[in-house]
Each structure stands twice: as structure tokens, then as C-alpha cells.
Design brief:
Its cofactor is Mg(2+). Its EC number is 2.4.2.8. Pathway: Purine metabolism; GMP biosynthesis via salvage pathway; GMP from guanine: step 1/1; Purine metabolism; IMP biosynthesis via salvage pathway; IMP from hypoxanthine: step 1/1. The chain has 185 residues and is of the alpha/beta class. 23% of the residues lie in helices and 32% in strands. It contains 4 helices and 9 strands; from the N terminus they run βαβαβββαββββα. Strands 4-3-2-5-6-7 form a 6-stranded mixed β-sheet, sandwiched between helices. Strands 1-9-8 form a 3-stranded antiparallel β-sheet. Helix 1 crosses helix 2. The longest helix has 18 residues, at 16-33. The model has no long low-confidence stretch (mean pLDDT 93). The structure holds xanthosine-5'-monophosphate (XMP) and magnesium ion. The site of magnesium ion has 3 residues, from loops.
């Protein structure tokens, strides 16, 4: 069945099948690296929920899951790097191997803040699994994720958990949002 493209999306970058392949590869890497470590997988709400739900089912070693919700103080699309914790972990991470799961890394400021915060709690290790990394010219991301699903161009990306104004998270594919959609208003 061909995927019906949403009229606000100009291009599909990764279909459901593409996503499945990427997630399987990431799950296999993580399962090999953490075989005997029982890592804590930390999903960053809300964008990473869809990816995390798939990724955890592609992880074959023992693991646990917890959630954090953060909100960036910056206005608009660009994060400022100043992050407010809206929901913290319920799990103590001292001595544990932690994998932070994010939907997309742009400047990397959000994730570098989270990595520093969690590192201050003395875990055994903290690594990042980012489903997407945005390729932005003249911009070196503040962190390098250990696991990366795919690279995307410097456009507004929606679907598979990624939103614009809380819409489009339910699209089963990753697409480029038409600029007309976010430029009007
Ligand atoms: P930084 O710059 O801190 O930004 O790496 C990461 C956060 O910004 C959001 N973001 C996006 N969300 N489509 C989205 O739906 C995008 O193209 C996009 N680029 C950045 C996202 O919340 C991520 O956690
Ligand atoms: Mg996010």
C-alpha cells in the first residue's frame, strides 16, 4: 500500500519501511553494546516517544525505560540551550548505563544540557541515540550522538513523533513540512 502523503508535506524523506530498517540497525547496535549492562533507556517527551516505542522492541538485551520532559526557554523553532525540566526521571541512575533517546538533533544544545545534567548524577555512562541529525551549514552540533539513525537537510521536519505546533506527530513517515505552513500566521 502506498503511503498517502499529507498535503502539508512537500517530500517524504523516510518511508515506514525505511524507518523500520533504520530502527532495526540501531537496535542491533545497542543490543550488542549493552548485552550485559541492563541500560536505562530515557525517552525525551514528547517527540521521541514514537521512535522509542519502536527502538525498545528492536533491543534484545535486558533494559528498562523511563521518561523526561523538557521545555526549551527559547521562542520559536530554535532552542536556546536553556532547558527547563518539566518531568524528571523516576529512576535513580547512579552507577547505571543510560541511553538518552531523542527524535532530532539540531544545534545539539538540548541534548548537551541533558547529558550534563544526567552525568552530574554519577551514572556509569551516558550515551545518546538520536533518530535524526539535521545537517546545518556552519553549525557544529554541541554533542556527537553515539547512535544516529539518519541525516536530514536543514528544513522543518515532521512525522514519526516530530511536530509543528503539536500537529503531524502521528504521520507514520518522516517528511519535510512546506514552509507556507509555518510561515503564515
Ligand atoms: P537542538 O537545537 O537543541 O534542538 O538540538 C533539538 C530540539 O528542537 C526541536 N527541533 C525540531 N522539531 N522538527 C521538529 O519537529 C524539526 O525540524 C526540528 N528541529 C529541531 C526538537 O524538539 C528537538 O528536541
Ligand atoms: Mg524534542
Amino acid at each position: 500500500m502506498a503511503t498517502e502523503m499529507h498535503p502539508d508535506v512537500s517530500e517524504i524523506l523516510f518511508s515506514e519501511e525505511d524507518i523500520q530498517g533504520i530502527v532495526r540497525r540501531m537496535g542491533a547496535q545497542i543490543s550488542a553494546d549493552y548485552a550485559d549492562k541492563n541500560p536505562l533507556v530515557v525517552a525525551v517527551l514528547r517527540g521521541a516517544v514514537v521512535f522509542t516505542a519502536d527502538l525498545m522492541r528492536a533491543i534484545t538485551c535486558p533494559m528498562a525505560i523511563d521518561f523526561m520532559a523538557v521545555s526549551s526557554y527559547g521562542e520559536g523553532f530554535k532552542s536556546s540551550g536553556v532547558v527547563r525540566i518539566v518531568k524528571d526521571l523516576d529512576t535513580k541512575i547512579e552507577g547505571r548505563d543510560v541511553i538518552i533517546v531523542e527524535d532530532i538533533l539540531d544545534s545539539g544544545l538540548t541534548l548537551s544540557y541533558l547529558v550534563r545534567l544526567l552525568e552530574s548524577r554519577n551514572p556509569a555512562s551516558v550515551e545518546v541515540a538520536a533518530f535524526l541529525v539535521k545537517d546545518v551549514a556552519d553549525n557544529t552540533p554541541a554533542i556527537t550522538p553515539r547512535y544516529v539513525g539518519a541525516h536530514v537537510p536543514d528544513e522543518f521536519i515532521v512525522g514519526y513523533g516530530l511536530d509543528f505546533a503539536e500537529r503531524y506527530r502521528n504521520l507514520p513517515y518522516i517528511g519535510i513540512l512546506r514552509p507556507e505552513v509555518y510561515k503564515k500566521k
